[in-house]
Design goal:
There is one protein chain. This protein starts with a helix and ends in a 10-residue tail after the last helix. The longest helix has 34 residues. Helix content is 81%, strand content 0%. It is globular, with a radius of gyration of 20 Å. With 348 residues, the protein is an all-alpha fold. It has a domain of 240 residues: Na+/H+ antiporter like fold, CATH 1.20.1530.20.
Length: 348
């Protein structure tokens, strides 16, 4: 019995050290990111990649890898919940037509283009479809945070961006489940994760509609999730990330990046005859839809864990999400400085 208690104490100490290390590194990267005006999502991704480096992972993470993955899955739900919490149902309804058109073109064009090109290049059907899905999604939470900082969230263009993101993300998550079932490589755990992510997103929207985001309890919940739970999702991404795979297949990374960025921009530009926005406004919307953040990486991670994509494609999709998420804040800030009225000033 005494021996069992000693082992238990050692395990608890190991878990405590792992969790404390993860939270400490995530906090340092967030602090540094805000100093250099880098979005929190990007800083968290970088923290996860650093923690996932082989030397650090072997010493700090590996004794408790399974537990980190479990908390990381909870972090995915928390992240999608916060994305929904930052979305106004009124905004979505007010701009429903333009938002739906933008979402459909912005999602379907890159999906079909990327899937077709990768399949022609010799990749398997599962690889090609998952690449198409991962680059077809967008990052709701990233857009919301940037637009809030710029005080442009409740403009007409801001509403269209957020509404399109809602539709886009839902299509992406549902498509992932459908493809995994169609290919016969679905796993109940991963499909439940995708369904849970969708439900968490809409729970956030409903809670925001019923209670609002300004209540102290909601604010405190958001802080707790951001500080203690969500960092583990990004660490789970970093654990699977392999920088060496990019060195072996740099052309895969280049191809994913080009298709991801151009696919979203072209898809959004195709909506010009169907929406009320100008070319310049659609250019901003295109970059907003290019920001993929956690949603794209979550789908890539689930696809990698179920064997739908290999490590080279997974690492390329993570880098693509990182680059596209990092680019949007700088581009929209620069455009708005030159044209402050571009977003429209009508409150929604």
């Amino acid at each position: 019995m005494p021996k069992k208690e000693v082992i238990s104490d050692m395990e608890m100490l190991s878990i405590f050290i792992t969790f404390l290390f993860v939270l400490l590194v995530a906090g340092i990267f967030k602090f540094a990111g805000r100093h250099f005006k880098i979005p929190d999502v990007v800083a968290s991704i970088l923290a996860g990649i650093v923690i996932g480096l082989p030397a650090i992972k072997r010493i700090i993470i590996e004794p408790n890898t399974d537990l980190v993955f479990i908390v990381g899955d909870v972090g995915l739900f928390a992240l999608m919940f916060l994305a929904g919490l930052e979305t106004s149902w009124r905004m979505l309804y007010r701009e429903k037509k333009d938002a739906t058109v933008i979402a459909l073109f912005g999602a379907l064009f890159p999906f079909f283009t990327a899937s077709w090109i990768f399949y022609l290049l010799g990749f398997s059907l599962s690889n090609s479809l998952i690449v198409g899905i991962c680059i077809s999604v967008t990052a709701e939470a990233t857009k919301a945070r940037v637009l809030l900082d710029l005080k442009k969230l409740r403009t007409k263009l801001g509403a269209a961006m957020m509404g399109a993101g809602v539709v886009d993300d839902t299509l992406g998550l549902l498509s992932f489940i459908a493809v995994s079932l169609f290919l016969g490589q679905a796993e109940l755990r991963e499909d439940l994760l995708a369904i849970g992510a969708i439900l968490s997103f809409f729970v956030g929207i409903i809670l925001q509609c019923v209670l609002g985001r300004q209540r102290p309890a909601i604010k405190n919940l958001e802080k707790i999730l951001l500080l203690l739970i969500i960092p583990f999702f990004f660490v789970s991404l970093g654990i699977h990330f392999d920088i060496n795979s990019l060195m072996l297949s740099p052309w895969v990374l280049l191809g994913v990046l080009i298709l991801a960025v151009s696919g979203k921009l072209i898809g959004v530009f195709l909506t010009r005859p169907l929406t009320k926005f100008s070319w310049k406004q659609l250019y901003v919307v295109g970059w907003a839809m290019n920001s993929r953040g956690a949603v794209g990486m979550a789908l890539a991670l689930m696809a990698y864990r179920t064997g739908l994509i290999n490590i080279e494609l997974y690492s390329s999709l993570v880098i693509t999400a990182l680059v596209s998420t990092l680019a949007f804040p700088f581009i929209i800030t620069s455009v708005i400085k030159k044209d402050p009225l571009l977003m429209g000033e009508d409150s929604v």
